Amino acid sequence: MTLFRVLEEAFGAQDWWPAQSPFEVMVGAVLTQNTAWRNVEKAMDNLRAAEALSVAAILALPEGELAALLRPSGFYRIKTARLRALCLFLERRGVAVAPEKLAAQGEWPDLRRGLLAVHGIGEETADSILLYALNLPVMVVDAYTRRIGGRLGLLDDHLSYAEVQARIETELPPADVPVRNMLHALLVALGKGYCRPRPRCDHCPLNARCAYSAG
Ligand code: SF4
Questions:
Q1: Keywords on this record (predicted)?
Q2: Atom of ligand 1 nearest to the CA of 200
Q3: pLDDT tens-digit profile of 66-93?
């Protein structure tokens, strides 16, 4: 939480996740796998222009047409299958019209298990959906989290996703969605601005607390 406050002071409040609805968050969480966000935005624009940003519209599209719309996001055939699988899951759960109502169908660990059973939904994607689309208190672990935590000397490289998540969760106030939302956003801001593959430590707000920077 000390690091959280330092980052909040440095970067201010973050507007995250960039989407216009919970369903858009879910779609973005699938499309952002292994690609930059600017490519996701192009695919989202395509879906929007085709009036296909709903569960029913996506399931109604022929597979080839959906794949063409998703093409800018890369790995588009794989993502076509994954997005259709997610939409079928939401339809089966009876929340196709209002996917955010999934949050009312159980405790988040059960919902997480359900999402992880969907083709192509891994831990990071499931947790992004839980936190950002469903407003549930789940910490998202991504490549920025691992890189920054490792360099700070807080996380070992060999830890699994679940171990990293549990390690961070012990530091956070329980059931606090805004803190988890903001922390992930702040780590992304730090990872993009300073803690890049080649880090810019000189002006990094965590410089004085970082094992990597201390050499
Ligand atoms: S001081 Fe350098 S290595 Fe440490 S968090 Fe900042 S950018 Fe990353």
A1: Endonuclease, Hydrolase, Nuclease
A2: 7
A3: 999 999 999 999 999 999 999 999 999 9
**Which residue is closest in CA terms to ligand 1's atom 4?**
210
Task: For residue 16, name the pLDDT band (cuts at 50, 70, 90).
Answer: confident
Map out the domains of the chain with their CATH numbers. Answer: 2-14+140-214 (1.10.1670.10), 22-133 (1.10.340.30)
* Cα 189 to middle of ligand 1, angstroms: 12
Of how many residues is the chain composed?
A: 215
Instruction: Say if residues 149 and 157 touch (Cβ distance below 8 Å).
Output: no
Whole-number Å distance between alpha carbons of 112 and 122: 10
State how far the Cα of 143 lies from the Cα of 191, in Å rounded to an integer: 9
Give the SS3 label for residue 141. Answer: coil
User: How far, in Å, CA of 193 to CA of 64, rounded?
Assistant: 38
Distance CA 198, CA 192 (A): 11
Return the biggest CA–CA distance within the chain: 56
Work out which ligand 1 atom sits closest to the CA atom of 207: 1
